[in-house]
């Protein structure tokens, strides 16, 4: 079977932004690596999963579709069965796959922080929506607050390799969903100028978040052209059901010009089949259903394909985010997104370890590396999360920043040219000094071609002992403490902040946003 027969993508590209707005608070980042060399599925496997997903949407469809979805999809040729299932004909899905907007960007508020979602360019960031934060002093957990979320945002603001801020904690001190949604957006946008991803539980909350963004951008049109905030939307409840509230939120976001992360979470062996192939087919179908819905609302929508199949530990029923099965499943889901050439996001880094320890390191490194090598555009939860996304650790953010620098460096391609082959230089050195350490090319490239960790120790054993035998955790804790004591960015002007506080019930005290 020709696995491209149903897909002839019509590429649309987003415009480039001009420099302007707040300055980045860290050095200019390196260009996003272009990866995509890891392909767990062969061509036949991809074709069969694609065909199975189309079959699922055409014959089984999605249940519990709210009226906004039914109206949008049936107007384009979808069909509602007598038992209430919304079917997506192959021709409709194929038409959407041909028409999706591709090659666009998400924006930061400094040009150096833009996220290019073209092809297999890779960016890594935070995420998690955890209810808890880890206390650095003793490793205990406590309920996260709005101030903790703000602290996380301003810490990420200073971490070079954590390239966007996806809301990492649920502020447990916000007593209503409206207060939670609006204040989460405000605290995130105040804490970092990097691209921000948040959530909303009601369409009216989307409107308030949009108005906040319009004010910060200077106008509605300015935000629509260069959106610096997007919404994570879990439109599906596996297996094959819509979440009505989430679909209403998606419709409001599309109408407001907010990019949408079309996310699907199924757990292999629990809410999706126990086989990787079956899990991928169902998850792809659920994700495509959300993508098609977004496209029917606006063919020019910035919609990001967010298949997030997760692995279940069948002994306990809990998530096994640090497993080898999870790593390869995530890479395969990313390969499917690249098969469609869709801007995409995925979860990696969902370690099961409760603290930033050796288990946390190997589990995060495994899953994030495979996601990066597969070419995921946006890797969320790549830094700071612990305990299967149940807790956020500020200390882990700093440690994971070192990890991400190494992983992103390893995901890039190798430049082979006359200049980099260095045959003339080799000849000079072997007839001269006999080593390359003092050569001009070595000196010139030592900063441009290498990423150096800030906290991982590379000292010789004697020097390490002489310096007090430090470990990465103690170094990271000091960085967190120093950063949070000194870094109080002004990413929202005082005038705009005053206006937002007058219009919305902002619960983050102004005094909390300045140095004591």
From TrEMBL:
Its EC number is 2.1.1.-. GO terms for biological process: methanogenesis; methylation. Residues 10-19 have a biased composition (Basic residues). It is an enzyme of class 2 (transferase). Residues 1-36 are annotated as: Disordered. Keywords: Methyltransferase, Transferase. Pfam families: MTTB. This is Methyltransferase. It comes from Planktotalea frisia.
């Amino acid at each position: 079977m020709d696995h491209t027969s149903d897909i002839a993508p019509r590429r649309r590209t987003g415009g480039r932004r001009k420099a302007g707005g707040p300055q980045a608070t860290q050095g200019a980042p390196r260009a996003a690596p272009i990866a995509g060399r890891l392909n767990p599925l062969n061509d036949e496997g991809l074709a069969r999963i694609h065909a199975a997903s189309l079959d699922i949407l055409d014959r089984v469809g999605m249940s519990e579709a709210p009226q906004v979805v039914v109206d949008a999809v049936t107007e384009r040729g979808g069909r509602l069965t007598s038992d209430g299932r919304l079917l997506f004909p192959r021709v409709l899905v194929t038409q959407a796959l041909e028409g999706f907007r591709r090659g666009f960007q998400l924006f930061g508020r400094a040009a150096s922080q833009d996220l290019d979602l073209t092809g297999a360019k890779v960016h890594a960031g935070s995420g998690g929506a955890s209810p808890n934060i880890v206390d650095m002093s003793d490793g205990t957990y406590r309920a996260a607050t709005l101030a903790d979320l703000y602290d996380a945002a301003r810490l990420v603001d200073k971490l070079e390799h954590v390239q966007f801020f996806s809301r990492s904690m649920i502020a447990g001190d916000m007593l209503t969903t409206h207060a939670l949604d609006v204040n989460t957006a405000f605290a995130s946008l105040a804490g970092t100028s990097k691209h921000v991803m948040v959530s909303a539980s009601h369409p009216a909350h989307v409107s308030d978040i949009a108005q906040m963004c319009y004010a910060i951008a200077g106008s509605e049109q300015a935000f629509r052209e260069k959106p610096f905030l997007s919404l994570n939307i879990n439109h599906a409840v596996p297996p094959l059901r819509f979440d009505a509230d989430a679909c209403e939120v998606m419709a409001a976001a599309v109408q407001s010009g907010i990019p949408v992360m079309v996310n699907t979470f199924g757990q292999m062996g629990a809410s999706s089949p126990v086989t990787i192939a079956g899990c991928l087919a169902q998850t792809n179908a659920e994700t495509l259903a959300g993508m098609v819905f977004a496209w029917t609302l606006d063919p020019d929508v910035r919609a990001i394909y967010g298949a997030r199949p997760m692995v279940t530990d069948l002994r306990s029923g809990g998530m096994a985010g640090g497993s080898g099965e999870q790593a390869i499943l995530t890479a395969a889901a990313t390969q499917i997104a690249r098969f469609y050439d869709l801007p995409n996001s995925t979860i990696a880094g969902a370690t099961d370890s409760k603290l930033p320890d050796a288990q946390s390191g190997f589990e995060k490194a495994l899953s994030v590396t495979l996601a990066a090598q597969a070419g995921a555009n946006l890797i969320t939860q790549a830094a700071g999360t612990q305990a299967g996304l149940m807790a956020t650790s500020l200390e882990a953010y700093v440690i994971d920043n070192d990890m991400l620098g190494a992983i992103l460096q390893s995901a890039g391609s190798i430049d082979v040219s006359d200049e980099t082959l260095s045959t003339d230089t080799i000849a000079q050195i072997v007839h001269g000094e006999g080593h390359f350490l003092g050569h001009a090319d070595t000196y010139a490239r030592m900063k441009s071609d290498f990423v150096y960790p800030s906290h991982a120790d590379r000292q010789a054993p004697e020097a390490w002992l002489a310096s007090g035998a430090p470990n990465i955790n103690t170094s990271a804790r000091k960085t967190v403490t120093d950063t949070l004591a000194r870094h109080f960015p002004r990413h929202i002007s005082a005038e705009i902040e005053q206006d937002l506080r007058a219009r919305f019930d902002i619960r983050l005290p102004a005094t909390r946003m300045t140095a004591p």
